[in-house]
Design brief:
The complex is a heterodimer. Chain A is mainly α. Chain A contains nine helices and one strand; from the N terminus they run H-H-H-H-H-H-E-H-H-H. Helix content of chain A is 66%, strand content 1%. In chain B, 68% of the residues lie in helices and 1% in strands. Chain B is built from nine helices and one strand; from the N terminus they run αβαααααααα. Classes of the chains: A mainly alpha, B mainly alpha. The interface between A and B is large, with 78 and 64 residues. Strand 1 of chain A pairs parallel with strand 1 of chain B, so a sheet runs across the interface.
Chain lengths: 181, 171
């Protein structure tokens, strides 16, 4: 990643062959890892992984490096930005192949549950929870992620996740008159 | 029979509720999403991404995948993947970015390797061609040969025509 963040984008986007080769060598590990992860859900083979990775590189250099020129080092690391771009290209590629077969064990229970349409959910009033509190509750309960995963995602301590969760639940219980269990 | 309600667990309570805003507030750019994943955004901007990620299950899945991949050592890359990608940008592109577009520009551009060796080879080829030309008699010799050759042809053709006249007269 360090090598990648030292990429001279000005030289790279002039079409310099050596700069491109160096960039490919530095970027390939992150692109490969992200593409493999994104494609795993679609159960596609090695050739599709190779093609999707190639799609990412094509997107980066197409139209006189237009996509690469939109990257701003002041806003995010090149590796992270490439990871975001790669995932989106890999998902597009996989969808084009139309072989979405996610193993049932990998799907959160909440996603498989058939909702009883007769049970009307009570709306949480706007402003009762912050966006961060809502996100943490969604990650913990809808996505069934553990506290460590949420902490890694949000770049905060596990303790902060627990305390944000606790405060959110206190607010909800107080608002809806629910006793703690 | 007791009418007292058993207190619901946190999860049960959450699942009985619906957030006020379950529609993504708008598309977020790749750069903003990357900055959010790195925890670089100011609180107000981060809150907008928090809301978008909370509202969109696909975005949440993407966020967890990316955080997981970026938080671990990266696996080795197949050689073929890098070779194919490197082939996307060829020497044509480099030539365009060189100093000159002609032969000399290409020869002495900073991106061209072995420029001195190439120049020496070109000079040697010119020298050999020149020497061969001089030793072979140059242009004067070839003109002379051409002229001599045409005289011989003319003489041969006039002799042949006389012979033909003699032959027809005999008939």
């Amino acid at each position: 990643m360090t090598e990648l963040n030292q990429t001279d984008l000005r030289v790279l986007t002039t079409g310099n062959k050596r700069a491109w080769d160096t960039f490919v060598a530095a970027a390939a590990p992150v692109i490969n890892a992200v593409v493999r992860r994104a494609m795993a859900a679609y159960r596609l083979g090695e050739e599709d992984v190779m093609d999707a990775a190639q799609d990412v590189f094509v997107r980066l250099c197409a139209n006189d490096f237009r996509l690469l020129k939109t990257y701003d080092p002041a806003r995010a690391g090149l590796g992270t930005w490439l990871a975001v771009v790669s995932r989106s290209a890999a998902v597009d590629h996989a969808r084009r192949r139309r072989q979405s077969t996610l193993p049932i064990d990998d799907v959160p229970e909440a996603a498989l549950a058939v909702e009883d349409r007769h049970v009307e959910k009570i709306k949480i009033p706007q402003g009762l929870l912050t966006d961060r509190q809502t996100l943490i509750l969604k990650c913990l309960y809808d996505e069934e992620r553990d506290v460590a995963e949420v902490a890694l995602l949000l770049k905060i301590d596990a303790q902060t996740v627990r305390s944000t969760h606790h405060k959110a639940l206190l607010r909800l219980r107080a608002h809806f008159g629910e006793e703690p269990p | 029979m007791s009418t007292e309600r058993t207190p619901r667990t946190d999860k049960e309570l959450w699942q009985s509720l619906a957030p006020d805003r379950d529609v993504a507030p708008g598309a977020i750019s790749d750069l903003d999403f990357a900055a959010w994943l790195e925890g670089r955004l100011p609180e107000a901007v981060a809150a907008q991404i928090d809301a978008a990620v909370a509202a969109d299950p696909e975005l949440r899945r993407a966020a967890f995948d990316l955080a997981d991949v970026l938080g671990k050592p990266l696996p080795a890359v197949p050689v073929r993947m890098a070779v194919r990608a490197q082939a996307l940008v060829g020497f044509d592109a480099e030539r365009q970015s060189g100093r000159g577009s002609g032969f000399l520009g290409r020869l002495f551009s900073s991106g061209t390797r072995y420029a001195v060796q190439r120049a020496a080879m070109a000079a040697m080829a010119i020298m050999i061609a020149g020497t061969g030309f001089v030793v072979g008699g140059g242009l004067g010799e070839s003109f002379a040969q051409q002229r001599y050759g045409s005289d011989v042809t003319q003489a041969t053709s006039s002799e042949a025509s006389t012979e033909l006249t003699d032959f027809s007269d005999g008939i």
